[in-house]
Amino acid sequence: MIKASNVTKIFTGRGQVVRAVDGVSAEIAPGEVVVIIGPSGSGKSTFLRCLNGLEQFSDGHIVIDGVDLADKKTDINKVRREVGMVFQQFNLFPHKTVLHNITLAQKIVRKRTLKEAEEKARQLLVKVGIGEKESEYPSRLSGGQQQRVAIARALAMDPKVMLFDEPTSALDPEMVGEVLDVMKQLAKEGMTMVVVTHEMGFAREVADRVLFMDAGKLVEEGAPEQIFSNPRHERTQLFLSQIL
Amino acid sequence: MNPDNKTWRAKLLLAVILFGMAAGLYGATLKIDYTWRWNRVPQYFVYKNEELHKAPFDGRVGKITRQGETAVIELIGDAGEKDRVTVDADAVEVSEDDLLFEGDTLGATHQWRLGPLTLGLWTTLWISFFAGIIGMVLGLITGLCRISRNATLRGLAVTYVELVRGTPLLVQIFIFYFFVGTVLNLDRIVAGIAALAIFAGAYVAEIIRAGIQSIPKGQTEAARSLGMTATQNMIHIVLPQAFKRTLPPLAGQFISLIKDSSLVSVIAITDLTKSGREVITSTFATFEIWFTVAALYLILTGILSQVIAWMERRLAVSD
Ligand SMILES: Nc1ncnc2c1ncn2[C@@H]1O[C@H](COP(=O)(O)OP(=O)(O)O)[C@@H](O)[C@H]1O
Ligand SMILES: [Mg+2]
After folding, report:
1. B117-148 pLDDT, tens per residue?
2. 3-state secondary structure B29-73
3. Where does the ABC transporter domain start and stop, copy by copy (chain A) (predicted)?
4. CB B123 within 8 A of CB B269
5. How far is Cα B284 from Cα B296, in angstroms, rounded to an integer?
6. Which of B160, B200, B279 is nearest to B192 (CA)?
7. DSSP strand pairing (B46-54 vs B105-114)
8. Which of A83, A91, A104 lies at the smallest CB-CB distance from B218?
9. CB-count exposure of residue B184 (10 Å: 0-12, 13-18, 19+)
10. Which residues on chain A are in Cβ contact (under 8 Å) with B240?
11. What pLDDT was estimated at residue B27?
């Protein structure tokens, strides 16, 4: 599904050069749930954003479903339809109702009719547990509800992969569960997911594989039991001892 | 003290101060021995125009048929010509069988006509309207160029904005009229509207640029990650939100535009200000007319403020 080889992202600005992602290679199979963990500033978000072209990587290759992102002929907009993304800050469109948030891209990107798009949107709203909120504006919803709308918005495009960048980090603790439940449900249904999170419980329960990143490098990867109970690298041990 | 009481006292104080200022103004005019003639003002808004109808040939008056408000006068010429003239029933100046010579007054018709102040107000209104629309489009394009990745477009936009903001509007109007207008053979109205539009466009551009840049980057990222193109993102996500945020400064800009439009009177466009000046030369009711002109501008800008406030309330539903 996703094959990243030697991906490197260098930020240059204000006379500084930051290797945010430094030669990361990873493969994600269809239906697999991969959780990326690591300290703040280790390049997790940047790597995730390279996967849907929100960041242009400086070196390496990313192939998604057979399409090479580094290829100049690739239409990135076409790739992004297949790759859903959920952000830490939800990024719902505040000037549109919940329903319109979910139908807009279906109509103008997927070229669905209004009826098809609304049907799909309502179905997904029920699925994420907020069927009754379709005509509210995002500002009237709690953080947890907003994030569930954001997930529905991404799912409405029928993506082949879903990327989550710390989807619960901006939430009040009592709302974390409702969002994680939706994600667990998705994983159960066989969605291919790449999740950056600090929720180790979620990683243990849902992940097929855990990647640990530090200072832009992929330090270690393995099954959750192995990473959490028996980390091989010193930096992984240090990180886990700090957060667990 | 309860808050109701407080606002009441504040309002009273305000009323007293305003009344004092009005009284002072009146006192000042007494001192310079000015006679107010407010009764002369209304006729410059609307007036009844009298049109005299004259006999087209020598002859005599035939039958006069009165029908309600109008009267039809039949004319019989010495050479056998016939004619009928319709005038107002209460303004017939001949009787049946009167002898007529060519050019004699038969009667008159009266019609309500718009006076110069109304026409001037209308001119100001539509000049400002078109200048505002064009200025908005120019400003939008320039604002987008200003944040474009293309350095040439950015440079052009900056040059335009700086040139316009660094020179007085009055000078721009003269340049447009005397230079650009002559080169391109523009009508004075076109030159005036163009000058105002280009002036407003530069300010609108800055407002729009700031508005677009105030929209969080996450909005664009969310839109693009759903597969929207940069253009779709601009149209559906960024601009609607930017528009809402920029509505108050844009409103201020358009209110300024209405007031600034008074400067086009220097290139002999008969807008409200120029009409006022023309009326004064024939009435000498200087103070009354200027106060009236000011009040008319105030009404225009006041209505615009209300419309914008209404739009803001409508857009506020998503807050
Ligand atoms: N747009 C940017 N410009 C410059 N540096 C950036 C930018 N985005 C991220 N960085 C830097 O890249 C590194 C990795 O950031 P990020 O991927 O956000 O880390 P994480 O998500 O793991 O916390 C950090 O040092 C960060 O400061
Ligand atoms: Mg991050």
Report:
1. 999 999 999 999 999 999 999 999 999 999 99
2. HHHCCCCCCHHHCHHHCEEEEEEEEECCCCEEEEEEEEECCEEEE
3. 2-240
4. yes
5. 19
6. B200
7. antiparallel
8. A91
9. exposed
10. 95
11. 87
Can you tell me which residue has the tokens 């008319």?
B296
ipTM above 0.90, yes or no: yes
Give the residue, by CA position, lying nearest to ligand 1 atom 1. Answer: A11
Look-up: residue for tokens 């979910």? A102
Spatial strand order in the sheet of A33-37: A83-86, A161-165, A192-196, A33-37, A209-214, A217-222
Residues of chain A in contact with residue B214, where contact means CB-CB under 8 angstroms, are none
User: Rounded to 10 degrees, what is the CA torsion of B150, B152, B157, B161?
Assistant: 140
Asked whether B106 and B73 are in contact (CB, 8 A), the reply is yes
Closest-CA distance, B218 to chain A, in angstroms, reads: 6
Amino acid at B302: G
Q: Kindly give, in sequence order, each residue whose CB lies less than 8 Å from that of residue B7, ignoring residues fewer than 6 positions away.
A: none
Measured distance CA(A38)–CA(A102) in Å, rounded: 32
What pLDDT shows up at residue A13?
Answer: 82
Distance (Å, whole) CA A121 – CA A128: 11
Query: What is the bridge-based pairing of β-strands A2-13 and A59-64?
Result: antiparallel
Residues with Cβ within 8 Å of residue B33, at least 6 apart in sequence: none
**pTM for the complete prediction?**
0.85
Query: Would you state the pLDDT for residue B145?
Result: 96
3-state secondary structure of B285: coil
Find the residues whose C-beta lies inside 6 A of ligand 1: A 11, 13, 18, 20, 38, 40-46
Please give the number of the atom of ligand 1 that sits closest to the Cα of A42: 22
Cα–Cα distance for residue pair A211/A36, rounded to 1 Å: 5
Amino acid at B63: K
What CATH number belongs to A2-91+160-242? 3.40.50.300
Tokens 């039991």 identify what position?
A: A225
Compute the half-sphere exposure of residue A1: CA atoms within 13 Å on the CB side of its CA.
21
